[in-house]
Amino acid sequence: MHLADDAIELWERTEEAAGDQLPPPFWAFAWAGGQALARYVLDHPYLVAARTVFDLASGSGLVAIAAARAGAASVIANEIDPMAIAAVQANAAANDVTVTAELGDRLGGDAGNADIVFAGDVFYSRAMTERVLPFLERAAARGATVLVGDPGRAYLPRERFESVAVYEVPVTRALESADVKPTTVWRPNLRF
User: Fold this and answer.
1) 83 in the Ramachandran plot: left (φ > 0), alpha (ψ -120 to 50) or beta?
2) For the chain, where are the E strands, in sequence order?
3) 93 secondary structure, DSSP code
4) In this prediction, what percent of the chain has a pLDDT beyond 70?
5) Residues 99-115, mean pLDDT to the nearest whole number
6) Where are the domains of the chain?
7) How many Å apart are CA 96 and CA 74, to the nearest integer?
8) pLDDT computed for residue 191 by the predictor
9) Which of 56, 84, 117, 139 falls between 20 and 30 A from 17, CA-CA?
10) What's the CA gap between 7 and 23, in Å, rounded?
11) CB of 151 within 8 A of CB of 90?
12) Across all residues in the chain, what is the average pLDDT?
């Protein structure tokens, strides 16, 4: 994977190259939730084998790439940041897998016909949670398997999810103020 070591330096360099202010380079890191989801997929390849996958807020493409490597029939890595799309494409090529990098906000829908929907590290703010939660619930209600990776972010509505697995995930101290974060893979509890 093409990932950054220093968030601030990368952010400054991309803004300098663009000649404009840019959002933080979230796509340049393997966040804990994504790492947990990727590990879960690689440990349970039957989950995605010959199925269609939609990876919401894909970032670097880590989860999408894990799904492709585990035998998914097709994988869409969805992002709203054009730089993330470039990162997904570069990382997919480096891993010799096919992933469709899709630019656009799909939160008004339900991931179309995807059999599996992944979302890592998406509950970092109240505003994001208010948009992501209905999307994930719509996908689950139409029959998709929905899995979320989360390292204990404040806005994860735990009462609406069931734990599937927990991993001790190595993280970047500068981003997470820790070296390891316990990170849970969750699925929606549609009985709430």
Assistant:
1) alpha
2) 52-56, 74-79, 100-103, 116-120, 145-150, 161-170, 180-188
3) H
4) 90
5) 96
6) 27-188
7) 14
8) 58
9) 56
10) 12
11) no
12) 90
169, 183 contact by CB (below 8 A): yes
CATH architecture of 27-188: 3-Layer(aba) Sandwich (3.40)
Q: What is the DSSP string of 86-98?
A: HHHHHHHHHTT--
d(CA 175, CA 192): 33
B/e letters for 53-62, b = 16+ CB within 10 Å, e = fewer, are bbbbbbbbbb
Residue whose entry in the numeric block shows the structure tokens 């734990």: 163
Other CB atoms within a 10 A radius of the CB of residue 84 amount to 24
Tokens, residue 105: 């906000």
pLDDT digits (tens, 9 = 90+) for 2-52: 766 666 676 677 767 777 776 666 777 788 999 999 999 999 999 999 999
- 73-88: pLDDT as tens digits: 999 999 999 989 999 9
